[in-house]
Specification:
Length: 467
């Protein structure tokens, strides 16, 4: 997928004027955001569970090599094969070879962010394969030729009316508006595709070192049909998805559903362990796991290793005021919202992704709700420091920050300057209490008035109150 993150501001401005998008995004607050709050309140040990989730991921990352080797050994014992891919090109090549070896013409896929990260669909299609997404949201955006706009709800940016129009355009027939009937129509079409598929490709929410299992979580049962019906099942997952034991998987699953959608558990959770065995009624004849690195092992020894704890629940974006206004497509690459603002510069380089760590108010809601306690604002701040070092920040902002830094190191001078600035702003407001324009504040006053400081600087007011 071509990265367009440099156009974040322009795309976010367009998103704010898109009434349909704003309606669709408003649904996240009443749906998933409120659902998470209810689910967390109902579970007394939720906060301890978050600590445990963080500890499991930290422990695994500290011994990643051991758990990955253990996972591979278990997969081989069960009759499967593990393929190691250093980067996106290697992973695409491996998947294509596996499809060719299976004599495949048609491939079904359940939702996988890793497949998005490596641009798998476009690659397989360019090589003559028919690829059908089976997750309803992914199916919808595949028809629209769009990338996902959310980790959990790839089509969350669309309204029901837009989906009705889309189905008329692609399926023909009368316009359906009833949600259940729309789902029924997609199901009718997808059932046939499942039966025709030679290869099924799924992602994995977790890989279990103890058993060699891949865990998939869906609400539609599409991963089960994708992996169970074709002759070959390919799991494509990144290195950090490995965890030690089945018990750890259940701890993280208890966090995942609650954090993502407010569900205590997703409707379908499946542990896939190897290919079909003698006596099994169904299942694939061949089972492959493609393990993608793509820069992750290099993150392990850096401050960004904390990002590898991410279990892709989407809670950070569901609670981010910037994401909820701009939508996922503004971020211009696969990963969106606060987690995308940290991950995207890692994958495409800070030069191509520098607007993203700035797309945050640093309100801290993302960190407050992250089930594995990733310090997202701190990681975004690290990227901002990198922008500054690489002179990617405009000269005015750089000089402004330098000046502020120099003052902040001299508290007396800082207080004096702040008092002087507060007085100057009060004078400019001429008793109206607000300013329609102010020097260096065009970004603020372009859309709203700037309140003039009342009662002195913050520090003066603080001191007075303490007295
Ligand atoms: S960063 Fe945290 S909240 Fe965001 S998707 Fe990952 S696990 Fe969920």
């Amino acid at each position: 997928m071509e990265a367009t993150s440099l156009r974040f501001r322009e795309r976010a401005a367009g998103a704010l004027e898109n009434a349909q998008l704003q309606t669709a995004l408003a649904g996240i607050k009443v749906g998933w955001q409120a659902g998470r709050a209810r689910a967390a309140a109902r579970l007394p040990e939720f906060e301890q569970l978050r600590d445990l989730g963080k500890a499991i991921k930290d422990h695994t990352l500290a011994h990643l090599d051991l758990y990955l080797e253990a996972f591979e050994a278990r997969v081989v014992e069960q009759g499967g094969k593990v393929h190691w891919a250093r980067d996106a090109a290697e992973a695409r090549g491996i998947v294509l070879e596996l499809c060719r070896a299976a004599g495949a013409r048609s491939v079904t896929k359940s939702k996988s962010m890793i497949a998005e990260e490596i641009g798998l669909n476009a690659w397989l299609e360019a090589n003559g394969l028919r690829v059908v997404e089976t997750d309803l949201g992914e199916y919808i955006i595949q028809l629209r030729r769009e990338p996902p706009s959310h980790l959990v709800g790839p089509a969350v940016h669309l309204t029901k009316d837009q989906i009705s129009d889309l189905f008329v355009e692609h399926h023909g027939g009368p316009r359906i508006e009833e949600p259940a009937a729309l789902v029924g129509e997609a199901r009718r079409i997808l059932r046939q595709r499942y039966l025709e598929a030679d290869v099924g490709i799924t992602g994995a929410n977790f890989l279990i070192a103890e058993t060699g299992s891949a865990v998939t979580v869906t609400n539609e049962g599409n991963a089960e049909l994708t992996q169970g019906l074709p002759r070959t099942h390919i799991v494509i997952a990144s290195l950090e998805k490995v965890i030690p034991t089945v018990e750890d998987a259940f701890t993280l699953l208890r966090l995942l559903g609650r954090s993502a959608t407010g569900q205590e558990f997703s409707a379908y959770t499946t542990f896939v362990t190897g290919p079909k065995r003698p006596g099994d009624l169904d299942g694939p004849e061949a089972f492959h796991v493609v393990l993608l690195d793509n820069g992750r092992s290099a993150m392990v020894g850096t401050a960004f290793r904390e990002m590898l704890r991410c279990i892709r629940c989407g809670a950070c974006m569901n609670h981010c005021p910037v994401y909820l206004a701009a939508g996922g497509h503004a971020y211009g690459w696969v990963y969106v919202g606060p987690m995308g603002s940290v991950l995207t510069p890692q994958f495409i380089g800070i030069e191509q992704g520098y607007p993203l760590p700035n797309a945050s108010t640093f309100c801290g809601r993302c960190e407050e709700v992250c089930p594995v306690r990733i310090p997202l604002p701190r990681l975004m701040r690290l990227w901002r420091e990198e922008q500054f070092r690489k002179a990617l920040v405009p000269p005015t902002a750089r000089w402004g920050l330098r000046l502020w830094g120099a003052l902040a190191r001299r508290p007396f001078l800082y207080r004096l300057t702040a008092r002087w600035a507060a007085r100057a702003l009060r004078l400019l407001a001429r008793g109206r209490g607000r300013l329609a324009a102010a020097p260096l504040a065009g970004g603020w006053t372009g859309t709203r008035d700037l309140p003039a400081p009342q009662g002195g600087t913050f520090m003066d007011q603080w001191r007075r109150r303490r007295r």
